[in-house]
Amino acid sequence: MKKLLSLSLALLMGLQLFAVDFLVQTGVSTDAKWDASVATATGAVIVDLTTEGKAVNAWITDNAAGKEVWFAAGKYTFTAAATAKANWKLYGGFAGTETSVEARRVGANAWDMQNATIFDGGGAVQLFSSNAEGQTYDGLTMQNANLANHASVMRLGNNGIVNACRVVNNAATTANAQGSIQIYNGNATFKNSYFAGNEAGQGGALYLAVATQTVTVSDCRFENNFVHSTSTTPNSGGAIQIQGAGTVTVERSFFVGNRVDNAKNGAAISQANTNAATTIANNVITGSKGSPALYAVCGKIYNNTIANNEDGALNVNNGSNLIEIVNNVMFGSDAETTGKVN
Question: What residues does 271 pair with on adjacent strands?
Answer without folding.
Answer: 242, 296
